Amino acid sequence: MRLKEVNINFTLNKENYSLSVPSNMTLLQIIRDVLHLTGTKCGCEKGECGACTVIMNGVSVNACLVIAAQVDGSSITTIEGIGNALNLHPIQKAFVEEGAVQCGFCTPGMIVSAYYLLNKNPSASDDEIREGLSGNLCRCTGYLKIIEAVKKAEKELNEIKR
Amino acid sequence: MKEINYLSASNTEDALSLLSGFGENAKIIAGGTDILVRLKDNVIKEDTLIDISGVRELKGIYEDKDIIHILPLTTHTDIIESPVICKHLPILRDAVKSIGSPQIRNRGTIGGNIANASPAGDSIPALYVLSAYVRVKSREKERMVSINEFYKGPGQTVLDSNEMIVDIVIPHMKEQEIGFFRKVGQRNAISIAIANVAVKLEVSGENRFSNASVAFGALAPTVLRAKLIENALLNEVCDSPEKLLYISKLSEREVSPITDIRGSASYRIEMSTNILYEGLLLMFLKGWKR
Fold first, then answer.
1. B1 to chain A: which residues are within 8 Å by CB?
2. ipTM reported for the complex, 2 dp
3. Which of A2, A105, A150, B250 is exposed most, by the fewest CB atoms within 10 A?
4. Gyration radius from chain B CA atoms
């Protein structure tokens, strides 16, 4: 069977979706244009800037490089699933407090990358934080405030666990 | 992105029969990190994608005596985090760590990096010096191809349109073997190599080697073995930085890079010497130990 439309079932931020979408759509387009969740940003569309970073099946990915059919059967978490204005995640809180947000365009991707990193490695060193965020570009902050924010969030998260 | 026909394979046999049916009109997609960019750039002529990402039997790393098998759908992250690779193939681990970004490495696969056949593919020089073999399969036959004979040119491999990679076979590095991978790009992450190099040396005595393998990437139409340098490493007593620099400068006679958006040919030639020299010097300072 040759298909130019694909049927996909997946979970996004703990809700189930069943969609039929063009086979040349990306996960990023599904998130932004179909589901209208605009926290995930569309930057370079070639995996260089990290603005579209989401968690897919437990790992961070560039949503712009995931083709629709590969979303079938997967579980996705976007920035909206990590926290919201009324209930900020400790990483988001730390970004605000440390001044790690300037124009804000890279922020959702940065936070998703930091979230993935700190889940995987709750005692990440400075170098490991830099490496963990190396797939995300920021053109405002110079990165230092972002790294400070992730360190602060790391400390906070470890205290919550105790 | 252009319209595509999307077909998904559930096992190897399925993938091979789809391949033999669609042949030259189809391209395999695994992690998609390269092909999506190329589809968006409109440089893919095929209009059908055969998705093998769900073929579980093609993912994983296992050991069989002194041989390591890396199945093609193994992601770069899986390779970096594998204790077996860390212990027995550190050169490959270092090479794979330099690929893309965490996000890219979480999706991109070793089979994809090999089949994509970029002259700058970072895993490839490491696979050259580690004497890797690629097992390729079609519905009719199966064959083993040395990675050294796998490439015909940029983006071109010996794979027939009905064949795909089903295994990557690499012998353990021996106890007395050491090596490194180095790369120069425009930034640390997400950069396509301007030049890269992998080196494996078998230490046989003080500052002497009984085997030397050196492979450069992004410096010729395909990854290349640097035979002059290998011979020099075998014949010289490598007991001083000056000698290592002299040997490293032989790279000028081995490489034939192009000028492109990432760097000029003359810059690439200088970088080929520098990354080789840096790597050799670091090993020398460590007393040629791992």
1. 24, 26
2. 0.96
3. A2
4. 19
